[in-house]
Write a structure and sequence with these properties.
Layout lengths: L11 H13 L16 E6 L5 E7 L4 E5 L5 E8 L2 E7 L2 E10 L4 E4 L3 E6 L6 E8 L4 E4 L8 E4 L8
Antiparallel strand pairs: 1-2, 2-9, 3-8, 4-7, 4-9, 5-6, 5-8, 10-11
The chain binds fe (ii) ion.
The site of fe (ii) ion has 3 residues, from loops.
Amino acid sequence: MTTVSPFHPAHGATTLASIVDGLARSPECWRALVEHEAGARRYAPIAIDGVEAWVISWAPGTGLALHDHGGADGALTVVEGSLLERHGSRQVPSVLQVRALDLGTTVVFDADHVHEVTNVGEVAAVSIHVYAPALDRMTFFADDPRDDVVVPAASTRGRS
Ligand SMILES: [Fe+2]
């Protein structure tokens, strides 16, 4: 297994980007965890010290609705296919920008970040995600803030 530097809070997003890029270059850490299933988004944890890491397999048309990361900073990189991200601030989750996350794209974000991620392509996509501190809850944002839903992060895994 390839060794990547553990996250330290004082190092912030730069370290998370370095970790996720290191994982992307180390398919031996995650390739066997990729699970493509028609119509489904599949999550699997990657064993790594110091951060929480996931590999997510996205079938065409699957996505995860607008959410935050419960106070965690994070980074993600696309290692197969491409994704579309609508993103904004937790302070104003109704104002969003859109960006393509093409193959090889790495983005980092802080705890204020909210996003919706979707595979709008015609082929499956795979992304690697790291979070620090560990992701223990996520809030999903509705059109009406009174309908926002806070859920344990574990319950979102594998959800399309
Ligand atoms: Fe997310």
